Amino acid sequence: MKELVFATNNKHKLEEVRAILKNRFKVLGLSDISCNEEIAETADTFEGNALLKAEYVYKKYGFPCFADDSGLEVAALNGAPGVKSARYAGETKNSLDNIQKLLQELQGVQNRSACFRTVIALMMDDQVHYFDGKICGTITEKPRGSGGFGYDSVFVPEAYLSTFAQLRPEEKNKISHRAIAINKLICHLNKNSE
Ligand code: ITT
Q1: Is position 97 annotated as part of the catalytic site?
Q2: CATH number at residue 35
Q3: Which of 25, 41, 152, 169 stands the most exposed, by the fewest C-beta atoms within 10 Å?
Q4: Whose CA is nearest to atom 6 of ligand 1?
């Protein structure tokens, strides 16, 4: 089975991607290649940060590698927290603090529309390819559910009543922004390994 590194320190993302890619590709995490450093995300776009992470591993460790940069874009906040989603409430990347800040910012706000976005950068054979995914929905007034990670407990995808954190992982993995982007990555890899 073909091996690919997924350059992430987020164990929830790694679990999701392994579940989506199961039986197709062996997905190695950063710890599997003994990469323990934190890769700085200094770009101001999802594309830029995804490339920084994938390129760092590809150049330093020589493995075909992909990385995802993702986040939540809230309409009433002009697209914030966006690329700053992980650090919205500070450098500790604490999800509960991030959620609390988001709900405070949206207190009394009627328009609760938001979208999750992911951009994947794949570095392979000295080339970069991008794959994106997006899912829109609404932000709840209070957190609901205990599954998932990040902002899952306050995001209800369009046409659903449950938050991402209330859905079964298999269900989130069928419709999420990350699933959409990963399916595009799979199509690309299948086409290019024929
Ligand atoms: P890596 O950079 O190591 O991959 P990270 O958690 O820092 O891990 P990002 O920079 O891409 O990842 O930040 C994305 C943040 O956006 C993440 O920490 C969550 O707060 C949020 N997020 C992304 N995808 C999400 C999802 O499927 N469900 C809930 N929150 C999500």
Answers
A1: no
A2: 3.90.950.10
A3: 169
A4: 10
